[in-house]
Amino acid sequence: MFARALRSATAQPLPTARITRACLQPRWVSTLPDNLHIYVFPDDRSLNNHLLTLLSTSPPNADLAIGSTSKLPPTPDSLLENPKFLSILHSVLAKHAYEDPYVISQAQAMASTSGSSLGSGGAFFPQKGQRRRGSGYGGGGGAGGDGAGGASAQGGAGGGGRGGFIHVSDTRSPPDYGRIAWPEDIFGSLEVDADGNFVDGTGNYQNSGSYRVITRDGILGLSPFLRDRVVDRLKEEQNKVHR
Q1: Which strands make up the sheet holding 35-42, listed edge to edge?
Q2: Smallest Cα–Cα separation from 123: which of 192, 67, 181, 36?
Q3: Rounded distance, CA 238 to CA 2, Å?
Q4: Cα dist from 204 to 42, 164, 195, 198, 219, whole Å
């Protein structure tokens, strides 16, 4: 009788099974197949539209979403960018881009190569003789830009012993070594001195004004460090709403 009771007790499902399933539930949130850091939710404001966001919180906050799309996967024609998100994005980059290990390595490489062009979208260009972007974008590494990003039209060539700028770029389509990212892939630029140090300690981030959240090469790609900083800021904004 004792053996039968023991077998009966053993056959009962463990209560932790239900807890395990609940713990796994966040994994069921939909993400974009080519960017698992971007979550997809129905957009209650518009039938058949979806919100794209860096936060997994449900229901999503449309004010903090990357944008809304009428197609999945999203395309440049289907995605409506959220201006508030872009404002937050550039605010975070202005505060933290100079701390990104990837950006720091670009600044150091600029100094070590005496101002020659850098690959992976972080090309150095001299302060002197920057050109402003015209009405259209150029092609290849000589694509146009304005402000800090505008010197991309020079192909990133620099001179030794002078300070300059490095681009902070989207990771979705890294250019070949020695080439500059497309204008729509450039978030902005940081100022670096001749020794590879960021001017004023932060690099004085300058918004390129040409960045696009999505292109034919993909959607918003951030380095792990910068993505974490953006998510942290979005969570702060989310908490303000719930207070």
Answers
A1: 31-32, 35-42, 50-53, 67-69, 79-81
A2: 181
A3: 56
A4: 38, 12, 16, 8, 26
SS3 category, 32 = strand
Amino acid at 88: I
Q: What is the pLDDT along the chain (243 residues), one digit of tens a residue?
A: 444 443 444 444 433 333 233 334 444 689 999 999 999 999 999 999 999 999 999 999 999 999 999 999 999 999 999 999 999 999 999 999 999 999 999 899 888 865 444 434 554 444 433 333 333 333 333 333 333 333 333 333 344 557 799 999 999 998 887 778 999 999 999 999 999 999 999 999 999 999 999 999 999 999 999 999 999 999 999 999 877
Model pTM score: 0.74
